[in-house]
Amino acid sequence: MVATDNSIYISDKAKAKVMQLMKDAGLEGDESYFLRVGVVGGGCSGLSYKLDFDNEIKPMDQSFEDKGLKIVTDLKSFLYLVNTELDFSDGLNGKGFYFDNPNASRSCGCGESFAV
Predict the structure, then answer these.
(1) Is residue 69 part of a domain?
(2) Which string of DSSP letters, residue by residue, matches 68-106?
(3) CA separation for the pair 27, 75 (Å, rounded)
(4) What pTM did the predictor assign?
(5) β-sheet with 84-91: strand ranges across
(6) Residue 83 lies in domain
(7) SS3 assignment, position 16
């Protein structure tokens, strides 16, 4: 992935998993829901990623669309997530969502947290 502007991106594999999770949660086809990504304090490296479904835009939220999926983050989190790609792995070496974050100076061994 080559970032062309300040945005948040999602891989095809991650989008497919998000769509499946939305379907499982009974949100499929409900255009008011989107994927909220964020950064919170915690984890072994100091900052952790957060993912959730939401349907409420807050005043300072930043909104993006990639591959037809609406992605929203708060302004503070966006400063850490600019040009990050959300990906998904179902391999033997780790299963789940992970962030390919060019802003992270280091991340922990489990990939759950990072530092800038």
Answers:
(1) yes
(2) TEEEEE-HHHHHHHTTEEEEEEEETTEEEEEEE-TT-SE
(3) 25
(4) 0.85
(5) 8-10, 84-91, 94-100
(6) 8-115
(7) helix
Three-class SS state of 3: coil
Q: Tell whether 1 is covered by a domain.
A: no
Closest C-alpha among 100, 64, 94, 86 to residue 12: 86
Residue type, 102: P
CA distance 101 to 73: 15
The single residue listed with the structure tokens 């759950």 is: 112
Strands 84-91 and 8-10, by their bridges, are parallel
Provide the residue-wise pLDDT of the chain in tens; the chain has 116 residues: 444 578 999 999 999 999 999 999 999 889 999 999 999 987 777 788 999 999 999 999 999 999 999 999 999 999 999 999 999 998 777 778 988 888 887 776 555 566 76
Helix (H, G, I), strand (E, B) or coil at 62: strand
